[in-house]
């Protein structure tokens, strides 16, 4: 049986305009990321024992993150490992699992187009990349176990993106229905969007917290992914390198999102592979190091090596010209 709210067919169009208004159907205050992930606010009840462990961890004989004036724990007043623990707890939620439903052949045929379209839509609406990645994760969870006709995919995708925006963004950034209507060149009523949102949230069991690979990769960056003793092509790193590393992480996260082979890989493993490939693309002499292993806390680093090798191979095949440049004199993300 066909699932999803009854609706008229929507024309499949590419987004053309960039919106600026705020609001939206079923509008509610966006949940701050730290609060949503159970972070302890400054002055909260983080135990002295936990904070002592943080200080012991920072005092170990490890290289310090480059350019970091204070640790993430000091900057936030919390034990940041609690955030990562929560990320790892929810990363298996709404993930594709072999043997537990499957995507239709039709969806797999158009998957890259859907991912690219929703990514472009998020950019047009000025939403954070983590919001778009969350919306795509919602959409694929629904499509994994439910038959939705192709002529309804677009509305399903917009409903998922809207839910993600309400959860991930500040309330004033959430797009309006008029903005979504502008994307598909057809009016979307409040009732219609609400029906699809309720349908999606019921399928998600109203559990909206997600930890995508990009969320976790950015956590790794915040903990420090460039180090004082790092070298690029035999030279010490300089102040622009962390900025370029951030851009490469976003780039490789988008690349991994497009490829179906990463659907069933744990986000924490994909995130580590994203950081490893980003460091390699920039020309770091060591693409992975023990400081990163301690942060990532992967049960099996063999998974990291296999996943990063796959991601790197995809990068090599798609951007052969950049590889030739990077091996001689890496410049930056702009070269892509």
Q: Helices and strands in order, then pairings?
A:
Elements: H1 33-36, H2 48-58, H3 72-76, H4 80-90, H5 105-124, H6 129-145, H7 153-168, H8 177-184, H9 190-203, H10 213-223, E1 231-232, E2 235-236, H11 241-258, H12 267-282, H13 290-296, H14 301-318, H15 320-326
Antiparallel strand pairs: 1-2
Question: Would you write up a description of this structure?
Answer:
With 336 residues, the chain is mainly alpha-helical. The protein folds into two domains: 1-28 and 89-210, Cyclin-like (Cyclin A, domain 1, Orthogonal Bundle), CATH 1.10.472; 213-335, Cyclin A, domain 1, CATH 1.10.472. It contains 15 helices and two strands. The chain has a two-stranded antiparallel sheet with strand order 1-2. The longest helix is centred in the middle third of the chain and has 20 residues, at 105-124. It starts with 32 loop residues before the first helix and ends in a 10-residue tail after the last helix.
Give a quick precis of the structure.
With about 325 residues, the protein is mainly alpha-helical.
